[in-house]
Amino acid sequence: MGPLEGLAYGFGVALTPANLFACFLGVLIGTIVGVLPGIGPVGAMALLLPSTFALSPTTALIMLAGIYYGSMYGGSTTSILVNVPGEAASVVTAIDGYQMARRGRAGAALAVSAVGSFVAGSLGVVGVMLFAAWLADAALQFGPPEYFALSVAGLAVLSRLTGGSVVVSFVMVGLGLAIGTVGMEPISGYSRFTFGSVQLAQGLELVPIIMGLYGVAEVLVLAEEGLRRSEIVRVKLRELFPTREEWRRSSWPIARGSVVGFVTGLVPGPATVLATFVAYTIERRLSRTPERFGSGAIEGVAGPEAANNGATAGAMVPLLSLGIPFSPATAILLGALVIHGIQPGPLLITNQPAVFWGVVASMYIGNALLLVLNLPLVGVFVSILRLPQPVLSTFVLLLCLVGAFSLSNSLLDLWVLVGMGLLGYAFRKLAIDPAPLIVAVVLGPVMEKTLRQTLFMAHGDWRLLLLRPLSLALLVAGAGVLVGPPLAAAVRRRAALSARGADAVSR
């Protein structure tokens, strides 16, 4: 079916009472998660994944996707009113949003943020609807060599975009690949890293790994540092109307941020965070008065807020069309598909149209619900910050423990949760992003399986990876991402040295 017929079918699926309630519940939880500092959509989705076991696959995915894009809305609220970003993607919003609040324009900042998020989210869903179906058709031409090359290229790009040391990113990728090999080897059945344990032979579950690295680690950090309290700016409903000039200055940043966010979401890595910084930089460079940025420029709120919601939609394209997650949040969604017995990949649209089109249509509905929720109820959501930090941390830790144990009623999952929590806490103290580890845990088994299939196809000749044009192009692209920046820096240094040598000779 075409995009319009598929969307009509999807609305029929998404508007059933169960799916509509799941969409509302997801975006409501997502907003609350965005308001609360530190928990994040990944931790919330991992915590609630066990609660979806009794739901249908479509209903479960609609709720989890609602948490994902709903958290982008909530993060802006505390960034603007309290100067405490609820989400990493809302850090940039706090730069100008809080300054607007101090000047009495908190309502305008919140309204522009909500409308920008709605526009970007809606345009992003149009992109998902158009590009995912097209990419899935193209992906039917993929074989094991192409999937292996795509996974390698994705990890290569991710190692460059985490913002830290490339060496550290490689170490994290290696650790994630090692964790992904725990258990029985998929072809010969040989046990690896099990140390004689029958439970380890089944491998390590993704959910306790993510909950530990994000949820438990966040609780430990909050217990050590405490939640920073700030004065909460109060906003009345009648103040939620920007002036005509503020709308005029926000319209183009919203449009540009929507496009920047969607395109960034197609790239492996922390798409929402990266998109906000790119959008903010673009708006500052295009502005005729860049000196206003940092002191309450509404463009500095509109562009990044549109970008982070556009990025969440863009990140759904490779997940739904290729079955490959490029971020920890989409890895959770992939895990939900697998747990519910659905094979992700290019045949998802054909074999499970209710899942694909139902989720796409629910994102239209969810964005409309978020617009209605986030403006009138802004005071209610901000009041959540008044909860005592020990109560909030204890509740999160309890959810982590119950969620991890409920996966298979195994104590092993609890030990994995605790171990990953301590590891995540160490990563926080060392300022290391665990995203490459999570994505490597997900992609590792895919890479191993497709590499083994490629070698079987070629009777052990690995050169088949280089003889297929698409796999060769993907491998070259991944190598270019890794080698290109150092080579460019070396060329610039050599040119600078030559220029200085020429100046010395001329003198």
Tally of individual helices: 21
E-strand count: 2
Integer average pLDDT: 79
In the predicted model, the low-confidence regions spanning at least 5 consecutive residues are none
* Oligomeric state, counting identical vs distinct chains: single chain
Distance between the termini: 73 Å
Cα Rg? 23 Å
The residue fraction in helices comes out at over 70%
Structural class: mainly alpha
Query: How would a crystallographer describe the biggest sheet?
Result: 2 strands, antiparallel
Strand portion: under 5%
**What string, H for helix and E for strand, traces the elements in order?**
HHHHHHHHEEHHHHHHHHHHHHH
Q: Strand order across the biggest sheet? A: 1-2
The gross shape turns out to be: globular
Tally of structural domains: 1
Report on the structure:
This protein is mainly α and 507 residues long. Helices cover 73% and strands 1% of the residues. It is built from 21 helices and two strands. The protein has a two-stranded antiparallel sheet with strand order 1-2. Helix 6 packs antiparallel against helix 15 and helix 10 crosses helix 11. The longest helix is centred in the C-terminal third of the chain and has 38 residues. The model has no long low-confidence stretch (mean pLDDT 79).
In short:
With 507 residues, the protein is an all-alpha fold.
Write the layout of secondary structure elements.
Blueprint: H1 3-14, H2 17-35, H3 40-48, H4 57-81, H5 91-102, H6 106-139, H7 144-161, H8 166-180, E1 183-184, E2 191-192, H9 206-225, H10 244-265, H11 271-286, H12 299-322, H13 328-339, H14 348-351, H15 353-374, H16 378-382, H17 389-405, H18 411-429, H19 435-457, H20 464-467, H21 469-506
Antiparallel strand pairs: 1-2
